[in-house]
Amino acid sequence: MPSRRRFLAASGAAASAAVTAGCSSLPVGDDPVPLGDDYPTSGDATTTGGWGTHRCDGANTACARDASPVENPSIEWESPQFGSVQRPAQRTLTVDAATVYTGGKAIHGFDVLSGDPVWTSEDVFATRIAPDVHEGVAWTRAGPDSSTVVGLDASTGGEVRRREFDVELHGEPSVTRGRDASRLPPYLVAQTAEGGVAGVVTEEPEREPLWETSWAQDLFAGGVFRPATTQQVAVTSHAGEVYRFGASGYPAWRTDLRRRPRSSPVVGATRLYVATRRGAVALDRETGAVDWEYTDVGVDGDATGGRTQTGVRRSAVAFDGARVFLSGSKSLHAVSAKTGQRLWRHEFDETPTALPAVGGDRVYVGTDTEVHALGVDGTHHWAFDVDDPIGETLAVTDGRLFTLANRGREDDVAVVSLA
After folding, report:
1. Count of domains in the chain?
2. Between 20 and 30 A from 79 (CA), which of 164, 197, 338, 357?
3. Which residues of 349-375 are buried (b: 16+ CB within 10 A; e: fewer)?
4. Which residues of the chain have pLDDT under 50?
5. Is the separation of the CB atoms in 84 and 412 below 8 Å?
6. How high is the pLDDT of residue 77?
């Protein structure tokens, strides 16, 4: 283990002054800010166990709500190094009960307790995006210009499913979480090469279905963020429009945010949340109407008139049912999910690179080579330096935190488990 790895106590130089709040409310003026409980149901979001998608679950909460915190971390294990692909800072990983998965020049599976290689699949699309894992199947594209998606056995890496979309794909597939597969089965949903979104059922039905087995929708502006896939499908276009469809592609509503988005939608029980250029917007889940807007992230730049840039990062929302967490340029913000008012802001010395993730009563974020842990009340608990730049994902399970770090040559990476 390299000697430069170190644990930084909250009282050390890495701890910056955070404006902290109580766990249930923060006085703002004369009135407290009430915190609702908008966390989605277990059919839409994972409450225990793994981190099955790039943002934990189909709702994109980036929250393992019942996970116990990681305290006084050390590196529990580090996987063998493997080759990555372009944009190393945007590498992701997913986790189920037994295996950690990630992309690269192949799809890799590592044992969740030891980090030992379990399997490698090279006969799929080389991508920095980890596969979505659902009911023991890891889904990924078959090739860069393909409409074919393959399902790999989560324990062996062997191909067990193959589905064809009616359109060429651009993004990696996600899986909807239908409550009753006999009435409406899960769909694979992915971005299309033309900037829309499309879906196909995970398995061909044995008899004539009452629903469409595949669908495609063109969206405005020729580009979308990765969809949220609960029992419905929610999509943000690059132009700032938010759409909600049924799992079978039926359009429910469309809302123009009239501002530049930075994230996929995060689906709560009653609202959808989207990071924007200067903050976040909350939409009513049933109607798409704007409920509130937060615009207090601020900008960096020359206050005398030089060029300014917002610090809100792409796909930068994490959500615990009461709070929306946003990465600023050198900061982390917590916003009331009910009112849109800021609860606290924590400043860092570096720009956040790993997107925020929640585990129990902690929120984790990465800055360059360091992982930070804060309480959901804003208290900074620790920072841990893994020595090398880390990837986009911090995946949280009970008492463990997983990330990717550059090791060796510029494009070589390894999975790192902190516990």
Report:
1. 1
2. 357
3. eeebbbbbbbbbbbbbbbbbbbbbbbb
4. 1-31, 300-310
5. yes
6. 98
